[in-house]
Amino acid sequence: MNNIERGGISVEAAHIFPIIKKWLYSDKEIFLREIVSNSCDAVTKLRRLISLGEVKDIEDKDFKVTVTLDKEAGTITVCDNGIGMTVDELKRYICQIALSGALEFIEKYEGENGDAAGIIGHFGLGFYSSFMVSSTVEVITKSYTGAPAVKWVCADAGEYEIEENCDTDELFDDKGTAVIMHVSDEGKEFLEASALRDILDKYCAFMPVEIYFDDGEEKSCDCEEENCEHKPTPINDTCPLWLKNPSDCEAEDYKKFYTKVFHDFREPLFHIHIKADYPLNFKGILYFPKITNEFESLEGQVKLYYNQVFVSDNIKEVIPEYLLMLRGVLDCPELPLNVSRSYLQNSGYVTKISAHIVKKVADKLNSMFNLDREGFEKIWNDVKTFVEYGCMRDRKFYDRVKNSIVYRLCDGSYATLAEYLESAKDKHENKIYYTSDKTKQASYISMLEAQGIKVAVLDKFIDTQFINTVEMNEAGVKFCRVDSELADAVKGGDASEIEAVSEVFKKIIPEETKITFESFKDEGVPAILNISEQSRRMEDMMKMYSAMGEEAPMSFPTEATLIINSNNALIKKLEGSTDEAMKEIIAKHIYNLCLISQRGLSAEELKSFLSDSFEILSML
């Protein structure tokens, strides 16, 4: 029979402290967040005991945390007037690494399924982050129970001393805890008031207990005047906007909060206030920022908080990639305080948060469309690209917002897909005519609008990709660029081929370009060049994947058709003329004008076009 020996792994403090100092957190500045969080927890615990009736001789008021810098002494002190500790509690929670007093408190007073009561720290390691910047740390504490005050002193080698019945008068009155960090040479940067202010502003701006910062230089005042300029004020907002009910918040509150958090004085386009209950349990406010121009950075910033404590500057895993331009804050108490990228990428909770955010964004867009159509249309151009991209990436998102998607028309008005098709049902069935360039395609637009056909403006590259998505999801719907086919409403009747005209055009156009004849209602247009919608979209797709730049000449699509208006006076003149040289110059000029409405001319084409133009003028 084999002998089996069991035991627990032991770690010597002399060996673990160097690891704590270097690797507990990637950023040293987090030490202040951890110590201030512990102080807030001390206050929160005492408040909870008061609310439960466990403590009756202490009033729930005037609780605070004070961060004091003494540059001359080389110390940073974080002091609270919260629950405090007895000597036994200090030995249990401070002398044993990773034993969390917060977890014990929750288990004792809230039960297994109880609320955490806003308590921040759950892991027990936070206190030891103080050694990342300190050579020695003192803890002076006195329990609310009236037990004697205790002083604990520990050097960064891990050896400590405990003294009972110490003096606490200069730190707090009858209860509380002070953590005094004697800053080491490696942490001297944190003895600057500006550095501490920046850390407090970043990590502690919304913690649930009032936090005061004393840099040793500010004047204090004991007067009772409420607006005294020397009276200290907390550096944090203990009840941030995301904790309030949306019905209690004004539009101006959201604007001020946005400016405060993101230092952007431009008014955001809209905001979304989220209060998700069980099973997600998270709160937040998201903003769609104003984009000044297309070259501006579109990357947003969603700050992650844990029970009002700042965790990360930008958690992209919580927001779908097509909504990354959003700015805002999310408070997720279900996420660990020391959250990692790998955790977020593989967390089912994060996936559910992301899905909920997508739903709320879709609901907001639909709400704005239904309740304030005019206001919605004013911001549409700012959000269009992201909505279209979201629809392309997420079918559920498309299904949610499709009835609120509007298309800008050439006349400046807007129409949904259903509205456009309803207005055009007598002219063309299930076709949406659009332009990608109002200037180049002006003649095509004019012909359609003259017959009462509205033309949508889809002039961004993503528009071409987006309409593919719409066609795949909406049975029978087809988008046609104004120069891709001749609408039936534009035709003026039957027309047959004019052989003499056909022959002269065949001499000057590419061999692969087809020639057809139609009778246009608009007699002033001699010809138009139509490009197959399918060929042009393929060309656009190749352009996207090609290494060729935007300014490089593109190969002309093969499925091109020159449609000649047999009803035009100039075409009739060509038919009856016997001057072959003149006919060829005129035909070439007409074709080049058609080309210009499709694309820019190459250098050789432009040179030839100008030469022909001068020659035509000389004939007059």
Characterization of this structure:
The structure is a single chain. It contains 18 helices and 21 strands. A hairpin with a 4-residue loop joins strand 4 (about 150-155) and strand 5 (about 160-165). The longest helix is centred in the middle third of the chain and has 24 residues, at about 350-370. It has about 625 residues and is of the alpha+beta class. The radius of gyration is 36 Å and the shape is elongated.
Key traits:
single chain, 620 residues, alpha+beta, 7-stranded mixed beta sheet, 36% helix, elongated
In a nutshell, what does this entry contain?
The protein is built from 18 helices and 21 strands. With 620 residues, the protein is of the alpha+beta class. Helix 9 packs across helix 13 and helix 17 crosses helix 18.
Question: How many beta-strand runs?
Answer: 21
Strand order across the biggest sheet? 5-4-3-6-2-1-7
Please mark out the parts with pLDDT under 50 across 5 or more consecutive residues, or reply none.
550-554
- Rg, alpha carbons: 36 Å
Sum up the overall morphology in one term: elongated
Helix proportion: 25-40%
Structural class: alpha+beta
Mean of all residue-level pLDDT scores:
83
- Biggest beta-sheet profile: 7 strands, mixed
Instruction: Report the portion of residues in β strands.
Output: 15-25%
If helices are DSSP runs of H or I spanning 4 or more residues, what is the number of helices? Answer: 18
Amino-to-carboxy terminus distance: 117 Å
